Amino acid sequence: MRKQPKFTLGLGIALVITLAACSAQSGGSGPDTAGSATPSALSADVPTTEPSSIPMTEPLKERPAPGKKVIVQYCSAPTCARFNQGFEDAAKALGWTVETMVYDTNDMSASLRSAVVRHPDFIVTSGQPREALEAGLKDAHKAGIPVFVNSTDIQTDESAGLYAGVNMAPTTERSAEYLADWMMADSGSTANAVYFYLGDRPVQQASAAALKNRFAECAKCSLNLHSISLEEIGRGAVPASVVAFVQAHPEVKYVAFSFGDAATGVGAALASVGLADRLKLIVDGTTSPAVTQEMVHGTVSMMLPQAAHYMGWASVNQMARYAAGLPQPSEEERLMPAWVVETPEAAQTLIPKGGLWPGPSGFEEQFKKIWHVQ
């Protein structure tokens, strides 16, 4: 069983749900008429303002040696490519170089081997279970190249040269709980929702399980889980799937997504069949400028932006610690920063940043400080 980080949501959210239920029973709005949740509607444990600090704070003993080469492999979805800038900026700060390449989801071991033959000092990949990497991982380990894996549920295995990265299952499980808590607070504890997630990705399976468990704590709430694939997202099939589902399930009031690109075009599709006013769109893990713009316009009701550039810096920090012979950050330190954006005004603050949230304010300088980089 995976060891879970310590969260403090339980008691606060229990109070929120109890108060919301009392409000609904005394004439408060149900899901058909409830307004957007405000910061005061959520527990203080749910972050509703942009964080300003990073969880990785232990300084290195000295500045890392320059000249290291990192290969970053990423998926074909637009969201995945948006993390690359953070890797490049962090590497540049250390005098390192980064090469990026799209991996083949049908043969991850071949993708790893294609990186190994380029003789990097580190390889970073994401999203895949260990068994998909195993053969390529052996080649990397034989060549003395450590492999760091983000956005999945693997465990570190130093004997195999495998290291758990950031945005792992504990992060997505926590985010799923934030989604559930928001919908419960917004609906007066009567939320009826559907959750579209990447069912073939272990980290998103963990997210779906966490959401289901949280909904199970709400007696009058209902949840449907609907698996989608990157291939469906790539060919623009998700909006039609959403429309078909909500037409067949008129009781659903919230449509939630585990992946920002999956929500693209859904608002327009719902509007085209007259369903937009009946539903609220909730988006997790987004680095999508289109989703941010839709929230500014009121099409999306709540989103959890993913720290698009922070991930690269946090990953490079892990490599710098490896190079220095220091222990890796703890599971809790590797949690991604989180921020519930629940108003168009909050979303508007991201527009000057390209519609993305790079990460906590000033996070680059905080990393440079612990790396002894001026």
Characterise this structure.
39% of the residues lie in helices and 15% in strands. The chain is an alpha/beta fold. It has a 5-stranded parallel beta sheet with strand order 2-1-3-4-5, with helices on both faces. It has a 5-stranded parallel beta sheet with strand order 7-6-8-9-10, with helices on both faces. α7 links the parallel β6 (192-198) and β7 (222-228). 52% of the residues are buried.
Brief description of this entry?
This protein is an alpha/beta fold. The chain has helices at 9-25, 78-81, 84-94, 108-116, 130-142, 169-187, 202-215, 230-234, 238-248, 266-272, 289-296, 310-323, 344-348, 363-371; strands spanning 69-74, 97-102, 122-126, 147-150, 162-164, 192-198, 222-228, 254-257, 280-286, 300-305. The model is unreliable at 1-40 (pLDDT under 50).
